[in-house]
Amino acid sequence: MPDWTLDDTQWRPEWFSLPAYAEKIPAFLRILREADDINSIEMARASLEHAVALSHGLHEGAYHVIPFLIELLRFRESHAKAEIYNLLVEIACSEPLDEADTIVGDDGRTPVALSTACRDRLMQVLPVAWHDLANDDDEEVVFQAMDFIGAVDPDKRRFVHYLRNSAASFGDKCRRNAEDWLAEYDSTDHFPP
């Protein structure tokens, strides 16, 4: 398990949809890291979503939470991993409440648009998501990894090619999801077979 210093992280109240979330973020992340209880995991994911991407309104806290979520994807199994992908999809589909929202970039000096900074961090998840899409035995993890890749990966041709070649090998739920993604791309982007 990752050896985090969650309590050392300065979770600022202005980063979240409600200031009170700042003191609760470490507990939610610990639940995602350690819990086996499905209800606790779902509650932690939903609480984090409300804190950083409430009603698809992106808050700066998302930028600071994503690295912890990436680490969790590398070692958590099944239900927790599916819930983490679910949260990452919600972050990916959210937009800043103010288009002018910027944060200080990783270099500690340069202002960066919040949406760009989050997108850059979400791109770091793609290798893990592609691995899980191709190799995980849990259908819910595969389903959520597929949704994450569909929402984030700029290489739509690769995604469409993979789904066309692999859809038949998926379980029912994932096969239907792959068919939905293919129908969406075929109707808008016209990728040749």
TrEMBL record:
- Give the originating organism: Nonomuraea rosea
Superkingdom of source? Bacteria
Listed name of the protein: HEAT repeat domain-containing protein
